[in-house]
Design goal:
- 4 copies of one chain form a homotetramer.
- Chain A folds into 3 domains: 163 residues, Jelly Rolls (Sandwich); 53 residues, no CATH class; 76 residues, Acetamidase/Formamidase-like domains (Endonuclease I-creI), CATH 3.10.28.20.
- Chain A is 13% helix and 37% strand.
- In chain A, the strands form 4 sheets. In chain A, strands 1-4-17-6-15-18-19-21-20 form a 9-stranded mixed β-sheet. Chain A has a 6-stranded mixed β-sheet with strand order 3-5-16-11-14-13, with no helix packed on it.
- Chain A starts with a strand and ends in a 5-residue tail after the last helix.
- At the A-B interface, helix 1, helix 2, helix 3 and strand 20 of A face helix 1, helix 2, helix 3 and strand 20 of B.
Chain lengths: 312, 312, 312, 312
């Protein structure tokens, strides 16, 4: 079944909020998200800033201990104007460099503005116009920055951070075609979505991607009785596990551990096989290194899994 | 001029050691390296383990404050047998998972053995033979794990770690065709090379790639009066800066700061241009997350630099 | 006014929960807390484990942007039996040491039991009885491990962690006689208290102090219009600021920054004075190094503040 | 035997340098150190800056695998003028705070000057004279900031950092009366001493204590066949183990692991006894949080060891 849902309120925490819609295993939701500052498809501020979330959606039969699979059928900007932070975040630069260059950062709250061309699938820097890169143009690569299911224990957690339930991860492969697997902590899972980016460099190191409102279509599926500890995902080419923590070292520990479990529990590899395969084939990618929790992604190519005969 | 150099002794530190050969700007060196355990092309242990280095090579005219450019003309395994660690390093896993799974790691010092097919350019796991992945075969992707120039202040630093001078970085793009730029701290730069890997996953998370002896051909060039703070490099497709430190967060700060300097100082971008470009286009990759210092690589596509007209 | 409050329900998150009692500026609350596993003064489990909190208490007139001062009039164990974790947490040990010693940790969930002598003010280890330290006896030093006010944005956050609002900090000077200052995020502040420890080493490195139910008496005061960013506190001898984050380096940054602000904003020191004083007089102490966020405390002696004439 | 040694050259690395004096087990050395900038007891710069070290001293019979015990008989400033850094290091402050306050740090290289009164045992700030703390006076608490034995593998490591061999640790209890135990890596141990501080706050957070030249008297002892992994020490009241690394979390792991080993191997505690004792009695203190490696000290009271009968 396809649900068309028009949001009327938003949450800046991911939590055990009142569901806005009940859906079933296999259902599709077509909806929209506002941008990180609460601006909609007309670039009008309709809700307070802070990665406001659409939802939560209650998925029937999803219970604590299950896994919720969410396929991103379509994620796409739905307006002409996006914006970005203008300066590198001080936490991604050497502290001494920050001290010595800070004088030039007096307009640190000013943003850059970008114009979308949704036909040519590009974004072009239009303000400021006087920098060395001029009308800098990039191909769009739309992704969701912040989304998740309700965390454990009835928690409600700020959309500025992340954890085992998802949150503000800003990982580039949370894009159309990707499937994300969530541990379910609350009855109905309570799925939230928000914070679309038209483009984003690794790490979200200016504190933003090209922030913009989105059209979102997703399809949900409940995997009964399957328990995972951290987000997992799947693209055309890879499986991946997501760890969220600071320092990055700890995020990497979470992601690597989840992947080691996955290979052994789901794909039946013995420990030496799993460790040896990861040792010579693992890939890492970085999500957010801006927020209180950083995001590390641990990936394995599906071609490798096919080669060893554990997927078709 | 091409120098053919056959090493007779090796160093397990990178330091102000007696040079084994004097070369000039533009010269090429053809030599060999032993594997991480000091085993040569006949798989004979000829020197103590610990990433033994060939060299150092004294490059005429390279003085402190200059930059040394080293092009990796050819890096290739030169024997049939390589080996890898058998278990994930405990520092890349959740501490609680290590505690709970440690019982099965009793043979933690045992290695896996791989057979090279240098015609088909593959490595095949031959020992242990009884794991779920059987005779697991991977394409070769040879790279140097540990190399560098003499560090500042007359230091001699263990080949188990890394710093602004290079060291044990284990980054996959230190491969044939890459150029690496080093800050020069000692007269003659004193270049060391060693620790070849036939294949390696990101992070070197079992503590090894497929460790093997190498044939190495490199060409050196001195860039007088140019001072850099951390290693830089160039592949066909990217420029990159390397940060080495723990935690990864700090390695990322070093690498990002060096890239921000690079874009502004060498390519003439103003601060807003450099920061905005990095914000939406930066890529990160991970070197070693096994050693006392971890390695983070900050990359920008050359196609982006071409688009803004700062390279041809 | 003195309120005697007997709790009937508990929360394992600190959040915007329904207040159990409204109190006024200057009021005193006399109440009790259960232990970390939800066991009361009769050692009966009456609520689920997870540092259950008594409260929240609504303090009239406390509004976002104000500061809430809470004086710990009396914190004391109120039963004869306490318990501790039996093994060092794996995150406070070298990863390789954990791997190599983990075999002996098979009963990691077993606890130690301690008997209180509330007259002699001691705790004595009674189970296991067969270790080298036998009936090991320590003087009591009662403290609250976990408490706080409702966090920003309507959040509800697990009592396993901490932040600017307080939480599970496990710092030894949260004891009788100490005053704690909280930033107020919610109307009424919504104060929660729980997790008493009869004794605790720095860092709570076995994951517990001597966990026990408490009698608690506190007096609250509202400081209108005063805004702080992290918890502050005051003992007979010191002022202190508390930072909560991982890694400890970041917790230290938060605590040091809050102290630097305090000296300049509240005590009128110029920047050179504040920095120079901290440089030669600062003291650090460690709270929890067990939880997702670690706790660092930055202290200055009151005798120093008296010497420079900024306090009486 | 007492050796009076007048240094004529200094090292800014700790390494396998030519010994300046050979001494025997039980011998005492009376010597001097210059300050961190290479200035002697007349405040004259006689050697380059960078924590220049006196020595190394070769201790007969000390061999790799032994432990060297060094008793600090007397550590005392020997001139009237000391200096300190004027601003908090940017790495101990929140990155955003650094960015926002950096404008006022334009004279970041300027130092403060302090006058010693060696009769009254005080230091008084004399320059700048116009801050809110005026002629701020502190009691002396002399300590050695940087010292160590030659590291493993023939390494020579900058006096800006630290490791298992010692180095720049800046811990306040490296003072008169303390005994320090070093793992021996080189024949003769090769002891270096330098970097006296008349006073220092925890962490050395302005990058300096009150830096000054010192009179140093030490007595050495060789403990044959005893192997330790990190520095240990002993004061009148405590035993302690020292971990050096970043982040602080890792330094804490090293120190805690060394202490757990110590209690079990040297004092014969079983694992549950050692872990339980540490859990409720451990104390942590912070050395340097300024350098590439941070320093964490893990302490246990001797009174506790006496109570359980493992020391007299």
């Amino acid at each position: 079944m396809i649900h068309h849902f028009t949001p009327t309120r938003y949450h800046v925490t991911i939590g055990w909020h009142e569901p806005v819609l009940h859906v079933k295993d296999g259902d599709t939701i077509v909806t929209t998200t506002v941008d990180a500052r609460g601006r909609d498809h007309t670039d009008t501020a309709i809700t307070p800033r802070g990665n406001p979330q659409t939802g939560p959606f209650y998925v029937e039969d999803a219970e604590p201990g299950d896994t919720l699979a969410v396929h991103f059928d379509r994620l796409a900007p739905n307006r002409a104007i996006g914006w970005t932070g203008r300066y590198l975040a001080p936490n991604v630069l050497d502290p001494g460099y920050v001290r010595n260059t800070a004088e030039s950062l007096s307009d640190a709250k000013t943003v850059c503005r970008w114009e979308m061309d949704l036909d040519r699938w590009t974004a072009t820097l239009i303000d400021p116009a006087d920098t060395r890169i001029g009308r800098f143009t990039l191909s769009l690569s739309p992704m969701l920055g912040c989304f998740g299911v309700a965390p454990s224990l009835g928690q409600a957690i700020s959309c500025a951070t992340s954890g085992p339930y998802g949150g503000n991860m800003d990982y580039k492969d949370f894009k159309t075609g990707t499937t994300v697997y969530f541990p379910v902590f609350a009855p109905g899972a309570l799925l939230h979505v928000g914070d679309g980016h038209a483009v984003q460099g690794d790490g979200e190191i200016v504190g933003t991607g090209i922030e913009i409102s989105f059209d979102v279509q997703i399809t949900v599926r409940v995997i009964k009785g399957k328990t995972i500890e951290w987000l997992r995902g799947e693209t055309d080419t890879h499986i991946f596990a997501v760890g969220n923590a600071r320092p990055l070292d700890q995020a990497l520990q979470h992601a690597t551990t989840e992947m080691a479990r996955w290979l052994q529990t789901d794909y039946g590899l013995d420990q030496v096989a799993a460790h040896t395969l990861l040792g010579q084939c693992v890939e890492y990618e970085i999500g957010n290194v801006y927020d209180p929790a950083y995001t590390m992604v641990c990936k394995v190519k599906k071609s490798i899994l096919r080669q060893i005969g554990v997927i078709a």
